[in-house]
Amino acid sequence: MTAVVAALAVAVLLLAVLVAGLLRSHAEILKALHELGAGLELDRAEGPVDVTIEGVRTPRRAAGAQTAEAVTGETLDGEAVALSLTAGTDTLLAFLSSGCSTCGAFWEAFAERELDVPGGARLVVVTKGLDEESASALAARAPRHVQLVASSSAWEGFAVPGSPYFVYVDGTGRVIGEGSAATWSAVVSLMGQAHADDAHRRGRLSRQGRDDAALSAAGIRPGDPSLS
Amino acid sequence: MNLDHAGVRVALPTGWEARARLQPSNRPGARGNLLLHAATVPLPAERGDFGSGVVELLGPDDVFLSLFEYDRADAGKALFAAQGLPALRPSDFSTKHLQRTADGRSGGQWFFQVAGRPFCLFVVLGSHSRRAAGAARASALLFRTTVKELSG
User: Fold this and answer.
1) Closest Cα to residue B34, out of A110, A78, A99?
2) Residue in A with minimal Cα distance to B15
3) Do A83 and B42 touch (CB under 8 A)?
4) pTM score, two decimals?
5) Which residue of A has its CA nearest to B41?
6) What's the helix, strand, coil split of chain B in %, to 5?
7) A24 has a pLDDT exceeding 80
8) In this structure, which of A101, A126, A203, B26 has its CB flanked by the most CB atoms within 10 Å?
């Protein structure tokens, strides 16, 4: 009897060591995946997820021809397109794909003709090129009145991490906000905030420029004793 | 930024955008003819061949351009006798060349052939009174346009 109990105790001990080892290796795998950036899982989010809105920055330049000055690609009808981002009109680029379930909410939202786009920007849906996307699936999802450009180079040029992803470009080609969310209302709110912040910043700079010009006209230059 | 489609390549100046597609062919198996639109305003997805839906958006300094290719068999007609992309002069523009005259816009139309391909070029300027600057802006685009010969 004692021998059986001892054998069982040894077996339990061995199994405990085995389970501890498995848990440790599992933790190491999860840690490695986290460091690689996996686990965003936008598709499983039920509501708005964390969104990063970056401040004003200079347009990115990709190694290829794609820059923040333009989006070049093709439509689902085979039309070649070169959309200017520097023609004076703000543009909201919506990077979507046919296979992402979170994108479904945006395809549905864009079906509305009187869509409220922050800052009155024009909305352009950008998918990957048709050699990487399903044209028939996109045709089934994309409303006819929405501008859609299939352009893998745009995804590379804007360093899009995944879909859905949104980039707000002002009429001079400056990216004034970008990020991801799970609902259109969240995108409207956050991109609207980025647009308003940019307008506020430009207004402040404009006032500062006027003040500097007035002081300069009065003969007061930087370093003038009257300014101290 | 370049737009390259069906043998026509346009190096777009900053602020221009363009779209190009092939028109449905009249002959089975034949290549469709090119229709290229370029403008200094955003081009809506739904546009008429000669700019309806776009010219209404032009401001005084804006330009719209439509390059419309005809069947290769038409290249022998007198209408397309001129060789090469045209040089646009301000005096070529008129308020009467538009389908609908309104708001002081100005238009011009040229027929020519390049590399054996017959074309009609239709240009609309946002303001007739500022046609010198508008014609120069449209010419700048044509200087950056090349047309290659295509079979079919």
Assistant:
1) A78
2) A87
3) yes
4) 0.73
5) A87
6) 20, 35, 45
7) yes
8) A126
